[in-house]
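Researcher: Quick one. three chains, 679 residues in total.
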Amino acid sequence: MDYNFHWRPVFKSLPDLLESAILTLEVAILSMILGIIFGLALSLIRIHVKGPLKWFAISWIELARNTPALLQLFFFGFGLGAFGIHFSPFLIVLMGLTFNNSGYLAENFRGGFNSIPDTQIRASLSLGMNHFQTYTRIIIPQVLRVVYHPMTNQMVWAVLMSSLGMLVGFRELSGETQFFASKTYRIFEYFAATAVIYYVIVKIILGAARLMASRLFKY
Amino acid sequence: MISISNLYKSYGSLEVLKGIDLNIPKGEVLSVIGSSGSGKSTLLYCINGLEPIQKGQIIVDDIDVHAKETNLNSVRQNMGMVFQQWNSFPHLTVLENVALAPKIVSKLSKSDALEVAEKQLLHVGLGDKLSQYPSALSGGQQQRLAIARALAMEPKCMLFDEATSALDPELVGEVLDTIRLLADEGMTMICVTHEMGFAREVSDRVAFFHEGKIEEINQAEKLFGSPKSKYLQKFLSKVKT
Amino acid sequence: MESSATYFSGFSLNDLWFLGEAALRTLWISFLAISIGSLIGIFLGLALSVSRIFSFTLGAILDIFRSVPLIIQLVLFFNFAPIIGLRLNPFEAGLIVLTVYTSAYVANVARGGIEAVGIPMRQAARSLGMNYWQDLRYVVWPIGLRAVFPAWVGVALGVMKDSALVSILGYVELLKASQILMTRTQEAILILSIAGAFYFALSYPISYYATRLEQRWSK
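Model:
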């Protein structure tokens, strides 16, 4: 083994890497927030609505779940380019991740809704609550608990998936790493450091999720 | 208080209620008995507007429940309903379970809602469980919680749908005691029940349902003491308590 | 008419053939990674369930593969192999990473399956005079398999979709082939749709069947 490891350039660019890690977190969190909103809507449409809207929801959900995330990203990146629609790399990644998150979260939500017995709805209606109040006060809080763990997993997935950004020119953590790696030819060192950063990010997310769960769900 | 005339209800092609006429004056306790599938529970769901009806009329406190212009949510505020499965809201504390509807439906202030809730919980004997979650309660306690939750809306009548049949035998007593308490206080009530002894003791009148119709209705003592219908005689001999 | 086809840089029948071949490569690398990875994963899962020390140390190591983006793992290993004197082509490097990645996920699933069987059932088996391997073969395997088969299908389909990432090493599987064609023909939507349809046609029926199976078993 005659390879000489050079870690100094990595340390020198560590601040830049960490800064790009913030971008990674930003796009992941944003795509999760949007994913929760769309996912909730998709799951409710899939459960309650009939007709074309339902088929739209099912197509979205199943395409998101049954094709590679990278292909979805390419679609937003290059596919829409055919119509003359061009997005910034940030938007491409955000849309790709949101599309993917929404599909997976929608199915988690559907499972959550199905796990709440109908009798809970009857009980709250019988107290004079309207349907909106029943959903926001009784059903969704319980669903959130059921889907909390899968949602945490999806957040981790969103962080991991955002690394695909480097393939569409987005300078998040992986993109930035590739930039430095190709500038210095210290590919292994840079990517090793980045692997550590991802690992730490994932651990922080899981730790924070656990902490939040213990405060949110006392029952 | 509650008046039902010529009520028909079916699920698809299955006719469950076939022409029910029933009048319940204020303060009366009516028990409804009959074998399962005879339409007893469905009647309560129709009165509460949880199930649509095909024909007839249900009037509660001068309001036609199933009329188009009726706001069901406000009608339901006048009726408390207690279900077979106790349906406590697992994500809320005992106190919050009871205070929620007064706060968001009756629009009481938070402190007023909590006060009402606490009063009703004391009423049903759960004053020491206020800050616990339902999962820490026994089935009997959860059912009393459900009663308190309904009472907190200050309903004019109460509907009990087999309130004790999902409970372990040793827990039935405490729930029946609570219902008995309400009867003594003059609450108008319809109790669908399997507890014949309870029906006989607490009710003013008892209705026997058979295949979607009221086969026999009479004062409790008379209905149990000298049943006329042969179906009722058969039913009573089977469930003899 | 025929001669015009040679000048036409648009999508041709030959290209479809090219995509088909690439799809077979996707299938091949996925098949190998899933089967070898599952085999290793099952043994890792057993090891995890056997002792606390294993579960802690081995668990922590496997956790790394689930907390670092696959794309980073691929780049890292592809650049690390030559350092330790391994000459690997993109297929070999991709297969190794994908296999290890699979086994890390399968190990977790397998552990879940073993735990699902529960101690009392296994004690009962042992009390009947079964030895450790008989217990595994006749009690843990059939019951545990039922419990986690849908989860395993999920992992396998995930790996199949993730195999698209091996494209970054230059291995011409389906997504790489699509990229090549997209650059030449500028028919991004068409080509991405064909590639997407292939992944979907493979993934959707299997996941649909797995869900149905899960529903049937849970009754």
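Chain B has a mean pLDDT of 91.
Researcher: Thanks, that's what I needed.
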